[in-house]
Design brief:
The structure holds 2 protein chains of 2 kinds. By secondary structure, chain A is mostly helical. Helices cover 60% and strands 1% of the residues of chain A. Chain A is globular, with a radius of gyration of 24 Å. Helix content of chain B is 37%, strand content 21%. Classes of the chains: A mainly alpha, B alpha+beta.
Amino acid sequence: MVTHENGGGHGQHQPPSGFIRKYVFSIDHKVIGIQYLTLALFSVFLGMGLSLLMRLHLAWPNSHWFFFKGGLMTPEQYLALVTMHGTIMIFMVLTTAPQSGYGNYFLPIQIGAADMAFPVLNMLSFWTTFLSLMVMVAAFFVAGGAPIGGWTSYPTLSALGEITGPGQGAGETLWIVGLAIFCAASLMGALNFITTLIDLRAKGMTLGRLPLTCWTWLVTAILGLLAFGVLLAACILLLLDRIAGTSFFVPGGLVITDQVITWHKGGSPLLWQHLFWFFGHPEVYIAILPGMGVTSHLLSTFARKPVFGYRAMVGAVCGIGFLGFCVWGHHMFVSGMSPYSAFAFSILTMTIGVPSAIKTFNWLGTLWGGKIQFNCAMLFALGFVSLFVSGGLSGLFLAQPSLDLYLHDTYFVIAHFHLIMGVAAIFGMFGGAYFWFPKMFGRFLNEGLGKVHFWLTFIGVYCIFMPMHFLGLAGHPRRYFDSSAVTFLQKLQPVHVFITIGAIITISAQLLFLYNVIWSLIAGKEAKEENPWHATTLEWSIPSPPPHDNFGGLEPVVYHGPYEFSVPGASDDFIPQHLAPNLVRKA
Amino acid sequence: MLSRRLERGSTSVALAFVVFLVLMTVVTVYIFWAKTWWFPPAINDIGNEIDAQFMRTLLITGIVFVAAQLGLAYAIFKFRDQGQKAASFEGNNTMEIVWTVATIVLFVGLGLYARNAWAEVHFTDAAPGALQIEVTGQQFVWNFRYAGPDRKFGRVKPELVSASTGNPLGLDSTDPASKDDIVSPVIVVPSGREVELTIRSQDVTHSFFVRELRLKQDAVPGMEIHMHFTANDPGDYEIVCAQLCGLGHYRMHSILTVMSEADFEKWMKDQAAANQ
């Protein structure tokens, strides 16, 4: 049963006519999805630009660059880049694009709904996210600049104001406020996703017929609902410590540059770490799960084969979601937390490797015996599998406290999480972009440019992040402005140069993607057919781009599972979910 | 029906994948094998134990890494679209059970196996006679305090802290126990003798990291965290800060010197003399 909060539901099939209601404050999930993707696209280039500055400095620390005052970067500028790169990438790209962007656009369509359950709330959550981005970016422009405490913002560095360093005054306050606003936006989005998926599924769209993309969007939304509430609380407590004189995270007796801090006592810096990582670890899965869903979807579609072990895949997604809440302590092995809990967290963390391995086996199983087509969407999905394996296995080192004692806070960790939650997740999104672009805009992305984009990116990211493992093995701590003070770091400089060259190539390839998007929107090959990929899910049963209410006022009925490819006895190698059984052509 | 698109299962794309995945795997495995960039030799027993666990983990993950990347390359090449009909199987419960159980045994087993190295550092306290040294992190230096002949650390007071006048820890000179305390910007320990560190911070969170000991421990404001080790090999080893502590994080650096017991006693005497 499909009902809408904006009155009547089936009465309204026309889009609003004014520009503002249609494109700015729109309540259409498709427009909002594109708004989120645009925000993420802006943010990813911003975040990447910041990382380029870091990489240039790390490779050639004594070279002069015209964009720095006096030509040289300062330590506080470097740490501001560290903080803002991480923050923008994790929140504004990895949380928004996979879930709020693609999820918003395709979840309602894939389940056969005319819109999200709460369209106005949907609009509100986008504009709240937008506000949050503005507040965070504003941190660059206040006195002292952006915060230097990293995206994890550990107190007491983050709790005491400017006295602990430049950027820790107004910049840090804006950062916390921006993050709190982001939490609120994500909570709204999560509620909307869960309600939509539970309530608005078309007739016949049982849970067992949900595309894996929808499963991952659902589990991600549940993770978001449980995790962002905790981060919101933590942000508010930290803000109170800073502006209201409370001491949640600050103990007594501190002395900073010879000044005694008399107005705080009784707090615990570890409390922040527990709250932050209770959010922070599920956040990793918030970033990667939708990418897993898209990858499963693409592998099946372009291997022309059913997903191998659909139920195991759903079970693995739920298992990862559940275990994701039980492992936050593995970020705190060196924090001074009880060594007994560390050991428990370690075993739980090793356990989460199991559903991840199940997914990898099933992806290979999906390809096995298939008829693999190499379009750009599929290339990125295949790249995802390779990156997921490479990035995931290093987790088995970090999950063991005895090994983490050495590797913690070194480049090994940077390599691990960038490969898995950064690059693999982004590969899922690129796969989605090449796959869904024709549906969203009625034109294909250029496949030739896309192939160049894929290969440069795939090779480039391995050149960036594989060597970082070795920097970590050599003991290179992360968040280091330069290597000047530490002897053993100096012979690692050639590795930094190599990584930076990889970064320049990778980033150039992303400009190619941006060009492809803009060029294809204007002059890309038109997607005349509804279903150019011969795919099965409901978005391919409607025109490209879809009409305002998706299904033209009709209620789709679902008869098939999501991945009925190469079914014996059928003449086509795919059976769309909405095709009535008597219309399936026999071979 | 729809027109056949170009490059559906292009052999060249499949080959490119095979070449890249094989090359990436071989290069990665080679660099691990050759230990081109590696940790320095450990100077304590626990370090060697940790290294052994590292190698066990590397072996298992290495096998999985090679098998998965090459398996992916094989599948991509073997099953590229050449006009064949795709298989229609939807899964295999036996295989699901086999690889689920196998990964549980492998991963959780590895985790349980790692218990010893962790337990030795953290589940047991230092022996009663261990040399006591207090480690204090502050933006952006390390200070190390020895209790002196009385084996008692004197009182410190935050309001007495003054790095500029040479009292970085705020040692209270009215406390008799503080008279013989030795404060040093480097840490010197005798080889073969157990040392217990009490790690604290005066301002923000730092992290005490010595690669050759395979040990890292955050210095957390408001907490006193204990860590113990026995260094066997004399030499100088670098100490770095591993937890972001502000703009001077990268230069928060000191030296751990391991020397013979006799040299250590002499060093202590020199320090005490300088303290008078």
